[in-house]
Design goal:
Helix 1 (10-21) packs antiparallel against helix 2. The chain is built from three helices and no strands. With 75 residues, the protein is mainly alpha-helical. The N and C termini lie far apart (48 Å).
Length: 75
């Protein structure tokens, strides 16, 4: 009997990643370089790999060419 692959909704994946990333140590000294949390920086990097695009704008252009519209139109 064949096994079915487990599926995750994107929000479940994001929650799972954030729960793991929240535990990352932050060894930066207090100052201007601590404006963003480590988990936010890692999630930003993850988004590039997830979307397979070099930037948000590049992803929006690809979405517009494939689907005729993009998320940036509503910003």
């Amino acid at each position: 009997m064949a096994q079915q692959a487990a599926t995750l909704e994107i929000y479940e994946l994001m929650q799972f990643l954030r729960s793991l990333l929240h535990e990352l140590p932050d060894e930066r000294k207090p100052g201007n370089n601590t404006k963003y949390q480590v988990e936010d920086a890692v999630m930003a990097a993850f988004s590039i790999f997830f979307t397979q695009s070099a930037s948000f704008l590049d992803h929006q252009r690809l979405m517009k060419s494939n689907k005729g519209k993009d998320n940036a139109e509503s910003l």
